[in-house]
Amino acid sequence: MVGHLLTLKEYSGNWIEEVIEKSINIKLNSGKYDNILKNKTLVMLFEKASTRTRCSFETGMTKLGGHAIFLDWNTTQLKKASLKDEIRCIERYADIITARVFKHETLLEMVKYMKKPLINALCDQYHPCQTLSDLMTIKEKKGKLDGLKLAYIGDGNNVCNSLIIGCKKVGIKINVAAPKGYEPIEKPNLLTKEPKEALKDADIVYTDTWISMGQEAEAEKRKKIFPPYQINKELMKYAKKDALFMHCLPAYRGYEVTDEVIDSKQSIVFDQAENRMWAQLGVILKLLGKI
Ligand code: CP
Ligand code: NVA
Questions:
Q1: Which residue's C-alpha comes closest to atom 6 of ligand 2?
Q2: What's the CATH class of domain 13-127+274-287?
């Protein structure tokens, strides 16, 4: 049966660790993998905006000898035609497909008709590629995963849900501090409304935007609710002294994080962004049965 990556729930901690190890290996020895994706095509469907995801998938495919095609949902027939028909055509050309969609249900609909692997490039509920890259980055920086503590402060969104799934599978304890009504759908080790409580003994402090794509109409309301969850120098003091700061980007400076934190030595946001490329290559090789 073909394997997809939709939420990360599909896979075990061992699977995740194997992909991370492989991704680190590809990063350190990319020349060795030059041609491993020769004649392979990734089709990338985007219903909403992206910088990192689009670039990292596309450059990653080129690096390993393959090819990527970007399809904007709104300038293709996907906008008005039957998804079922479009997908059944696209997969005749593609070896593997990735899609960024508004609703998770769109991905579930797609896989009903697909015999090729589908990778979730972000939906309203999950962002599994981000989590794999985050775990890879943590492994590089801390040398381990099991036994660490991560505090996620802010909106219990797609990035938060996937982090909860991934962290728990690899033995990272994850605390989430979110306001009432903005809790994640997945269950962290500790859920609180109080950032200071979540930050206690944290090795990693993570946040994301207060207003995700598709939530623009709620912007003003959210900007009033979330300020106590801003990661600033004051809040960072409640984590471990050597805690790392992470953010999936794009960051809205002055809202969920201050300049002094995102620009500090503790911040590893650009390594996270780079690792999107390596971690996704690990996933692609795994789903294509190349590793
Ligand atoms: N982190 C992330 O997915 O970034 P983009 O929205 O730019 O792809
Ligand atoms: N939670 C954000 C992540 C962007 C990469 C969003 O969905 O817009």
A1: 212
A2: alpha beta
pTM: 0.98
CATH architecture group of domain 130-269 = 3-Layer(aba) Sandwich (3.40)
Any atom of ligand 1 within 6 Å of the Cβ of 248:
yes
280 within ligand 1 shell (Cβ under 6 A):
no
CA distance 201 to 132: 23
Ligand 1 probe mutation, 44, 45, 47, 50, most atoms within 8 A of CB: 50
Name the residue at shortest CA distance from atom 8 of ligand 2: 212
Are 13-127+274-287 and 130-269 equal in CATH topology? yes
| 274/260 Cα distance (integer angstroms) | 21
Q: Is 210 strand, coil or helix?
A: coil
Q: 110-129 burial, b for 16+ CB within 10 Å, e for fewer?
A: bbeebebbbbbbbbbbbbbb
> Domain limits of the chain?
13-127+274-287, 130-269
Active site residues: 100, 127, 130, 208, 248, 276
Give pLDDT tens digits for 110-143: 999 999 999 999 999 999 999 999 999 999 999 9
Task: For the chain, give the percent of residues with pLDDT over 70.
Answer: 100
